[in-house]
What does this fold into?
Amino acid sequence: MKYCTKCGASCADNAQFCPECGSPLPQGAPTPNAAGGQTGGQGQYNYGNAQNYQAQPGGPGYQNQGSSNFGITPRSIPVAIILTIVTCGIYGLYWLIKLNDEVNQLSGEYQATSGGMVLVFTIITCGIYGWYWLYKMGDRCDRIKGMNGSSGILYLILGIFGLSIVSYCLIQDTINKAIGA
It folds into this structure.
């Protein structure tokens, strides 16, 4: 049985595309199995909860799974900050969406709220949902790092004091380290 590397859905061995998300499936390459390992090759792909994650040599607690970067492109934090300032926050909205989707992918929570919905809910609630989102992102970042921390509380406090961009930077740093950038 194959598993989609994008959404984690189970697929038939002879399938070329995922029946759930339509992504092309790797042919002849090892794919993750239900136990969180893979059916061949070296290293271990982990799609699931925090118990499956193991630290890799790239840094303590981070999930870089060999050469796989989960299809995520690393983002320069200083460039993201400058673009957010220059575009009067418009790039910050795009950044929020990308952060959400990438953290959901890395933490294995494929059914979590999408980045677009996070943006809509934050606008509708005049920013209150954004604080909840920061808290949840902290929990997911801790899971990606393979630790039991309290990043969610830190991100929430930063958001309450109007420093959400600092939380964005910390989340982006976690993503960059997790994909080995």
Summary: The mean pLDDT is 77. Residues 86 and 161 are 22 Å apart (CA to CA). The longest strand covers residues 2-3.
